[in-house]
């Protein structure tokens, strides 16, 4: 099994790296695993300059010729992804945020569906918010496991350490089991996104041509899979409620 850990800390040997070593150890107890570590601090990933070309015209129109494509290939080669960020002002680190910004087109045109994702926030207060941000960092992989790993600038009681390490073990087990199961059933969230973008990209083709080109030939879902009747009905109801509510902001919605 191949796992790519994407590290958002500027500190290569900080707490985030220590957590990944523990994750690796537990995964290795369960079977063969190869961990590829990508320190964003070492990557040539320029700060997004906000031209919007990747979303609007396609990621091949990004003005930067840096490591973004190589990073995509590393994600593609993995069975599982671990995103690790220290909590910075109750959010992700700047390095992780730039990675998210540079990958933002994947939240329009989703990919990496066969990947399972574990998200890890380390630090103290506000890690739930850091996890909220990490959950949507890349569009496509299923987030199967989440871990808030407490590391404070002072010693904590042994009881708290035990609790933290138990939570780590449980989170790794969930991640491992999901990678082994390889379940490709679409989550409701991804299915809703598909329905929304399929409808919106047709109606808004002049504004978002890359989305239109991507969704035009997709039918049913992003890949060949049977979507359950319950999911389809729940999505149809949600769309029927959401579309009129968005009419003022997106007058073209529902007009295709
Ligand atoms: C710029 C900055 C902002 C931080 N903000 C928070 C915060 O909001 N809450 C918190 O509990 N810790 C905060 N911390 C502490 C880090 O989250 C904590 O030390 C983390 O474990 C460092 O991880 P690393 O060793 O992997 O870099 C902050 C640290 C830095 C440098």
Summarize the structure.
This protein is of the alpha/beta class. It has 9 helices and 5 strands.
Q: What is the level 1 CATH name of the largest domain?
A: Alpha Beta
**Helix fraction by DSSP (H/I, runs of at least 4):** 40-55%
Supply the CATH architecture of the largest domain. Answer: 3-Layer(aba) Sandwich
On the 0 to 100 scale, the average pLDDT is: 95
Tell the overall outline: globular
Ligand roster: flavin mononucleotide
Number of domains as seen in the coordinates:
2
SSE arrangement, N to C: EHEHHEHEHEHHHH
What does this 3D model show about the protein?
This protein is an alpha/beta fold and 256 residues long. The protein folds into 2 domains: 180 residues, Rossmann fold (3-Layer(aba) Sandwich), CATH 3.40.50.360; 58 residues, no CATH class. The chain contains 9 helices and 5 strands. Strands 2-1-3-4-5 form a 5-stranded parallel sheet, sandwiched between helices. Helix 1 packs across helix 6 and helix 7 crosses helix 9. The longest helix has 24 residues. It is globular, with a radius of gyration of 19 Å. The relative contact order is 0.13. The site of flavin mononucleotide has 16 residues, from helix 1 and strand 4.
């Amino acid at each position: 099994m191949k796992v790519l850990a994407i590290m958002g800390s500027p500190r290569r040997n900080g707490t985030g790296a220590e957590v990944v070593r523990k994750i690796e150890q537990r995964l290795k107890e369960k079977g063969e695993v190869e961990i590829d570590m990508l320190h964003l601090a070492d990557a040539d990933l320029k700060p997004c300059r906000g031209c919007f070309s990747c979303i609007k015209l396609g990621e091949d129109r990004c003005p930067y010729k840096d490591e973004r494509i190589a990073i995509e290939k590393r994600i593609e080669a993995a069975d599982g992804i671990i995103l690790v960020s220290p909590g910075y002002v109750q959010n992700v680190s700047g390095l992780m945020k730039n990675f998210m910004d540079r990958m933002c087109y994947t939240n329009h045109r989703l990919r990496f569906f066969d990947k399972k994702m574990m998200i890890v926030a380390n630090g103290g207060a506000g890690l739930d918010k850091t996890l909220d941000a990490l959950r949507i960092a890349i569009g496509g992989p299923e987030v199967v496991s989440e871990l808030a790993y407490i590391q404070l600038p002072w010693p904590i009681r042994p009881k708290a350490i035990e609790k933290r390490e138990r939570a780590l073990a449980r989170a790794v087990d969930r991640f491992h089991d999901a990678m082994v199961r390889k379940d490709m059933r679409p989550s409701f969230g991804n299915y809703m996104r598909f329905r929304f973008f399929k409808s919106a990209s047709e109606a808004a083709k002049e504004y978002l041509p890359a989305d239109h080109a991507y969704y035009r030939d997709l039918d049913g879902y992003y890949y060949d899979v049977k979507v359950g009747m319950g999911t389809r009905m729940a999505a149809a109801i949600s769309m029927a409620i959401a579309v009129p509510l968005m009419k003022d902001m997106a007058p073209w919605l529902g007009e295709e």
